[in-house]
Amino acid sequence: MMKKQRYLERLKTKNKFSGSFYVDPRGMAGGLALWWTEGVSITITKDSINFIDTLVSLNGEEPWQCMFIYGPPHTTDKHQFWANFQQIRKNATIKWCVIGDVNIVADQSEKEGGAPVKCSQAKWFLDFMEASGLIELPIKGGMFTWSNMRSNSIAIAERLDKILISNEWSLAYPKAIGMLEATVTSDHNPIIVSL
User: Where, by residue number, does the polypeptide cross the bilayer (predicted)?
Assistant: First the structure.
């Protein structure tokens, strides 16, 4: 077990999570960690450097698909990733939810500061959303989920973290909301889904 995973396992135990799954980073970048508590049954169906695909069952209810995502940060990888992701969605036959850092803003309103939004990247993401029949669950508590931690004229803030849901998922959890929490050490704010 990697040194980083040993640290994460200690943190998981300290915070009373009962289950875990990890995707190792490549070099110093990336890596994913998924933790869950008692009463939540998670089956890992597929994983990659960019996502952990799961079946989630809460307290014995009918399972639904949830994908925890870290979208590629490099432009050269984004188009292929969203095309592949669309194929995964085509094969989904149950309620579906995607949570995480998509690493794309959908339009200029989701960015403040820095260079303008690249329309081609936004189009890849929006095409995926449309073809997949997903909608964004609104997140309360702020517009932007990431910042470059700078101030004044070099400050940049973006809405990179999203919660995407299928219509079936929305009907099963009509009171679900997303919440943006304050960050402590990261340049991303944590997002929480409350059912």
Answer: none
